[in-house]
Specification:
The complex is a heterodimer of chains A (391) and B (270).
Chain A (H helix, E strand, L loop, with lengths): L4 E7 L22 H17 L4 E7 L8 H18 L2 E6 L11 H7 L3 E5 L14 H17 L3 E6 L3 H18 L4 E4 L19 H19 L5 E3 L1 H8 L18 E4 L4 E3 L2 H4 L8 E2 L6 H7 L1 H13 L10 H4 L4 H8 L9 H18 L12 H8 L1
Parallel strand pairs in A: 1-2, 1-8, 2-3, 4-5, 5-6, 6-7
Antiparallel strand pairs in A: 8-9, 9-10
Helix pairs in contact in A: 1-2, 5-6, 6-13, 7-13
Chain B lengths: L3 E5 L3 H4 L3 E6 L2 H7 L8 E6 L7 H4 L7 E4 L3 H4 L15 E6 L4 H10 L3 E5 L8 H13 L7 E2 L1 H10 L5 H4 L7 E4 L5 E2 L18 H11 L10 H4 L13 H26 L1
Parallel strand pairs in B: 1-2, 1-8, 2-3, 3-4, 4-5, 5-6, 6-7
Antiparallel strand pairs in B: 8-9
């Protein structure tokens, strides 16, 4: 983490008001105090100064981030902004929430701190997302009401959805219809499930059948091509893959990054530092250290043996078959936590490899049909050759 | 055009008035030795032997070009991951010798968004198929977005119907580049370094004389349709090198350049 920008996934609380069956987090009641946040902010800014990093994006989540009140975030924002201004650094904020405790009291802080946008989660059919002590139906009902309220208030609501076996059985058509036509969601992203954290019967069904999941993804992409693009609907990761295969700038999801250890870290409410929220909530043996117990975040990151293993992962994967893959530049072996939770080995490639390949191939073939290439040869001459001539 | 001197960092004081490529194995030494006033004459810095840590260069003189020299590409290529952050602030090219396993290094370098310069020399027959496959990837694979030299410059020259000189593309024309060894002695650049510099009367005319001699000796060059671009590049150092495989590569590039030219013209007419 020494480029121009990095991301910090910051867990304001380890507590959650939901009890989702596939959740990977080992939840506790701990929450971050503003005093601790000041210490954390100063150390993050120290690291940015030491590494010449100009910008950081804070992705707030939990547990459930909205279990802390809006006023806490207002003060957190002021505290961090003041500290960043003094150092000439830029901080941006994003919010991941299940929306179950959302009310209009949040509108001001969502507008001011989070760019009037939130990211939330819903599956369809929802089998596993549950309000604590209740069932999936209650989750659906409360979620739909709260999201409706937020959208009425002009808040942009993005949705992350994790397919399950029932999703594959109802098919892509019904799935798309539910999200776009029935719920009116215009920006959602599909994530793949993985069996992180403590084992249970739901997690034993993961990973899902990769061939079935690949078929679902490709069919969903086709439906989006036919009905969504022209209506301003955005479906990830298809939207960014389409950009990629039509020679535009693309912001691909973190699972396909060159090396996530270069891009972000996560810190939980206790100050534990790890690669991302998946690791910081479940795998103490993979902690990089604790920000409240170290003198310097820079030194913590530089000397952490756990972090060195993440840095080494893509290097080690090159000894396997990834180097022979047509889509190496898109994937780099995939997500470490997906690999680890399925195989028990950080140095394995992502278990959804076959899904990714099928999806990449499908998008590569469909892209020229969806977006006209600048010249006919664009379908046969690579970006490198073409860009030098066209631009 | 002024001659660019490829010098070891230790010789900086002697050559500071020249256009330079500065090479070192120690990135931190660049920061310690080069001041900003000299940078206008610095074409790029060349990092040898894949130094252990280049973090100090990430924010040093943004925009300055960097070349990573990858030795033993077939085994060292995974190390390229360690240098990807340099791309945040620098154009970075990887120089890759065409030897066993080079194609994996090229693939990973391009996947990480590095530009690539093939140090092609006189590739053995066993390397021709990997070269053909690498060229095919460069030309047709949509995941390739950065220049792969010398393919890139030749393709554009064929497309634009412009003259080009492979010795120059490869930065091996003594009229343009000289190599200063660690002892401070001047040498010919690149693969010409095996030639005794003192024995060359006019280094700046070396390519001109070499090319003329290849035409006069009536060998393969005298009948080659790519002589205008190559000028006997592939006949050095072994004059009896069989260019059959190389000519297949060049023919593929010529056809692709012509295809691109036609398609661009067609697009403009609509």
């Amino acid at each position: 983490m020494n480029g121009n920008h990095f991301s910090l996934i910051l867990l304001s609380t380890n507590k959650c008001n939901a009890a989702c069956d596939y959740c990977f987090e080992d939840k506790t009641n701990n929450r971050l105090s503003l005093q601790k946040l000041q210490v954390l902010t100063d150390k993050v800014l120290d690291h940015m100064e030491a590494s010449n990093i100009g910008r950081v994006t804070i992705h707030w989540q939990g547990g459930e981030a909205m279990l802390l009140p809006p006023d806490w975030y207002r003060q957190a924002y002021d505290l961090m902004q003041t500290a960043a201004d003094k150092r000439g650094k830029l901080i941006r904020h994003g919010l991941q929430t299940n929306m179950l405790t959302y009310s209009s009291r949040w509108n001001e802080v969502i507008a001011g701190m989070f760019g009037n946008s939130v990211s939330t989660s819903l599956d369809y059919p929802n089998l596993y997302r549950k309000v604590l002590g209740r069932g999936p139906d209650d989750y659906n009902t409360i979620w739909a009401r709260k999201v409706g309220m937020a959208r009425e208030a002009g808040i942009d609501v993005k949705v992350i959805s994790v397919p399950n076996q029932a999703t594959l059985e109802i098919g892509a058509e019904r799935f798309y219809e539910h999200f776009v036509d029935e719920l009116g969601i215009t920006d959602f992203q599909i994530n793949t499930p993985f069996p992180g954290g403590e084992a249970n019967s739901v997690k034993q069904s993961m990973p899902l059948d990769v061939a079935e999941l690949a078929r679902f993804h490709c069919e969903l992409a086709d439906i989006w091509f036919e009905r969504g693009i022209d209506r301003g609907v955005s479906v990830g990761p298809f939207d960014e893959l389409l950009n990629y295969f039509t020679h535009k700038d693309a912001c691909l999801p973190c699972i396909w990054g060159q090396n996530c250890s270069d891009e972000f870290i996560s810190i939980d409410a206790l100050g534990n530092v790890a690669q991302c929220d998946c690791w910081v909530t479940s795998y103490p043996e993979y902690f990089f250290g604790n920000i409240f117990e170290c003198d310097s975040l820079t030194e913590l990151l530089r000397t952490s043996q756990a972090r060195q293993r993440f840095q080494e992962r893509p290097v080690k994967l090159m000894a396997q078959d990834c180097i022979h893959c047509d889509y190496l530049s898109l994937c780099h072996g995939g997500c470490p936590v997906r690999a680890f939770t399925v195989s028990g080995n950080l140095f394995e490639k992502d278990p959804y490899c076959a899904l990714y390949k099928a999806l990449f191939r499908h998008l590569e073939q469909r892209a020229p049909q969806i977006v006209s290439p600048p010249v006919r040869a664009a379908s046969t001459i690579s970006k490198a050759a073409l860009s030098a001539e066209v631009h | 055009m002024a001659v660019v001197y490829n010098i070891p960092l230790s010789r900086l004081a002697e050559y500071r008035q020249h256009d330079l490529i500065v090479r070192t194995e120690q990135p931190q030494a660049l920061l310690d030795s080069i001041d900003l006033g000299q940078l206008q004459q610095l074409a790029y810095v060349q990092l040898l032997s894949l130094p252990a840590n280049t973090d100090c260069l990430i924010h040093w003189t943004p925009g300055l070009a960097v070349e990573l020299v990858l030795e033993q590409p077939g085994t060292n290529f995974p190390q390229l991951y360690r240098y990807a952050k340099l791309l945040d602030n620098h154009p970075v090219r990887v120089a890759i010798p065409v030897e066993n396993g080079f194609e994996k290094a090229v693939k990973l370098a391009l996947s990480l968004q590095f530009a690539v310069r093939l140090q092609i020399g006189q590739p053995a027959e066993v390397l021709m198929q990997p070269l053909i496959d690498t060229l095919d990837d460069y030309l047709h694979r949509p995941t390739v977005a950065l220049p792969l030299e010398f393919f890139h410059s030749l393709l554009l020259a064929f497309c634009r119907e412009e003259p080009i000189d492979l010795w120059q593309v490869q930065e091996e024309d003594p009229a343009l580049v000289r190599y200063i060894d660690d002892a401070g002695a001047e040498q010919l650049p690149g693969k010409l370094a095996v030639q005794d510099f003192a024995a060359i009367a006019e280094p700046a005319s070396f390519v001109e004389h070499w090319a003329a001699a290849r035409l006069q000796d009536g060998g393969e060059c005298s009948k080659c349709t790519f002589f205008a671009q190559c000028r006997g590049y592939f006949k050095w150092p072994k004059r009896d090198y069989d260019c059959t495989g190389i000519k297949m590569l060049l023919q593929t590039l010529r056809q692709a350049g012509e295809e691109l030219r036609r398609d661009l013209a067609e697009a403009e007419s609509h």
